Amino acid sequence: MSHHLVELADLSYAYPDGTEALRAVSFRITHGESVALVGANGAGKSTLLMHLNGVLLPQSGAVRIGEVPVTRATLPEIRRSVGMVFQDADDQLFMPTVYEDVAFGPLNLGLPPAEVERRVSDALARVGAEGLRARPPHHLSGGEKRNVAIATVLAMRPDVLVMDEPGTSLDPLARKRLISLLNSFEHTKIIATHDLDLVLDVCQRTIVMHEGTITADGPTLEVFRDEALLARSHLEKPLRMQACPICQRPGL
Amino acid sequence: MADLSATLFDLGRLDRLADGDTPVHRLDPRAKLLATLLFLVCVVSFDRYAVAGLLPFLLFPVTIIALAELPAGYLLKKMLLVAPLAVLVGIANPWFDPAPLLRIGPLTLSGGWVSYVSILLRFALTVTAALALIATTGFHGVCVALRRIGVPAPMTVQLLLAYRYLFVLVSEGVRMVRARSLRSFHRRGEGLAAYGSLIGHLLLRTVERAQRIHRAMLARGFSGELHSVTPLRFRRQDTIFLLGWSAAFLFFRLVNVPQWLGRLVAPG
User: N or C terminus: which one in chain A shows less Cβ crowding within 10 Å?
Assistant: First the structure.
């Protein structure tokens, strides 16, 4: 039995104002896969992500993490196995010091102090932020905040990592480091983003969403070569796949 | 608004002072908190004409600032920042209470002036003591201590989160005001109506952010209590600190030390 499975079956969700954010969405992500979720603003990506750790519960259809369906009763288990990195690190870092922020999840799991300490050290080392332990999060740079936000999730030892726009507001170097960090994780990864170049580097599979439905689901390169599909979904070929603007040599 | 963000930056500095490593910093937060609370109670419980009796209390903030190697000038500036409040509170006293109370040579002071001086002195004492507490313990340390001495978790959690997001809220507000002023020419668009909508938006954003933070907390198993990882240990030096200062405060409160010294020097 693997906890690393993520399965959506005919998931639909409408907001109280009647907006249909998700219409019968189904997919199955298996152990260790790294999957990008792309689509225009308002395509339903964020709503979908919120279903993965039970912030929203299915109105119809089902979400399954491993063998466990997401319901009110299974929330603690789901939230331990699905780690979510939020778009704005400021929303995620609320404790007075980096150390305590990373320890927040493990402490809530009721782990003994020695284990908490070990997890915090491991997680901070993993993202290269050992030196920030004692710092208050609001005085960190954008890249440091992002790394610490990822560490807060890693400390929970999740099976599945879910990230909402992990690359935004990072400088190019920080973005590059993030990409190699993401590639070093063996977790099942689901990444919602507009940064298709990042997708090329990190995700073998891409799911395209448009107006609450899935319009494509396949190997990343294949999906990105379908220009008509990308245009319909308000997307654009990653820069690396476009012809060189100076010499016109075709891209990837 | 730019001033506001500068002030806030300064607040961050106050917090960073708490990273210092002196004997005062190393004391248990509870010892410092309780000593400071007793100090406050003693200072505010004097009668309204007390001036001389308050003076010995200066010893506490001065000692702490010296031992903890805090920048006195910076703390003084912080204190002056809130001073207008105290200045305004007692400003009318000299008019309401013109009865002569004190004669120093040819100078006669009315009761109102004496009580005004007393208010200012108390203000200076209480604010410096509070600043010294935060600068040696950190806001977080104070909250942990509050929780440990029995303040309910919802209150300390609120306090901690309010402090954490003060920085985010102000920088958001500063950005909005800047964006507005870039589009308002000749003072147009700076009226009350624009302010109303601006503050309304700030409120909406704050509510949304609060929801996102709550989600982030739930995602990591939050159940109403913030667990602390810093183990607190009340050691001998903490007991000595707390008992020593408590005894001093009670002594200063019950015996008018300057008067007593005066009598000692010039009996009769």
Answer: N
